[in-house]
Amino acid sequence: MEQKKKVRLSDIAKELNISTVTVSKAISNKEGVGDELRKQIKELAESMGYKTKKTASQDKGNITGNIGILIPSRFFSQSYSFYWYLFNFLSTELLNRNYYCIMELLTDQDEELCTLPRMIQDKKIDGLILLGQTSTKYIDAIHSHFDDFILLDFYTNDVNLDSVTNDNYHCSYLLTNYVINQGHKKLQFVGNINATTSIKDRFMGFLKALIENNIETSLSKIISDRDEKGNLIDIKLPLDDMPTAFICNCDETAAAVINELEKNGFKVPEDISVTGFDNYLSKNVTSTEITTVYIKPEDTASIAADIIIKKINGEPYAKGRHLVGGTTIHRQSVRQI
Fold first, then answer.
1. Phi/psi at 32 (nearest 5 deg)?
2. Is 103 exposed, middle or buried (0-12, 13-18, 19+ CB in 10 A)?
3. Predicted model pTM
4. Contact between residue 269 and residue 290 where contact means Cβ atoms under 8 Å apart
5. Which sign, positive or negative, has the C-alpha torsion 250, 256, 259, 265?
6. What's the rounded Cα separation, in Å, for the pair 81 and 260?
7. Which residues pair with 150 in a beta bridge?
8. Over the stretch 160-196, which tens digit does the pLDDT of each residue have?
9. In the 8-state DSSP scheme, what is residue 75?
């Protein structure tokens, strides 16, 4: 006997020549769909044999129209934070798709104790985006109570978890190659590779470029900019054995390196070149324009929003890890030698 094809939201949308989002909102009884159209969609869905896939919130009878953004507090500052910057793009993208954002900060203590976010405990959200490196133990705790979540800007070894990350490896490789092509043969990486998957991938891209150009390096030469939980620490320069270029894991670290170099009498880029990553830095941190990698936050936000909404609504999507590509931006912090 031939198995009946599963009816999807997109099939209903195609029949009525409307968007999948509109169909999803109608079936989930969310605002933004007229009564007559809602009735038409539901009747067609029933006649086509559409089976509703319930999310964690729907199973509890609580369809909220909200998506939570959980950010570890150690990565967040309203006055200066790449994640605050990215959150604004996420909230705008989700609002454009008729979802509201609820942001909550995850303290180190709550992460250690595996305390669920209040927005999950109080059933305030349909889906969750974990923005920023979080421990595997805590992710497992979330997963045991809540299914519809994705990881953003980091990933784990669990292939069953969905994530959206920058293409850190390849972009760092391209950036390092650019510096090498400017004549630099003595380079050092700045960043704790054990703190986040992003930093580790950026180091691996740096390492690939060095290997391909027959430039020696050592793990002992990595300069740390933070502890293993991600808290920033003071930069300690190797004043007795300085490189010609520092490849930093982010713009914030690059600015700290530049300031430390200037304190010790070095000029950037005249004496030493410096690169960053992210193309995000608050004003007046450094007067030097930093050579960096730019990955459009709009692209990241769009992909993350698309995946979490499809998960919530039971629509098909490409599961697993999603990479967002970027470009290098060449500014005054790197000179040719």
1. 105, 5
2. middle
3. 0.80
4. no
5. negative
6. 21
7. 129
8. 899 999 999 999 999 999 999 999 999 999 999 999 9
9. G
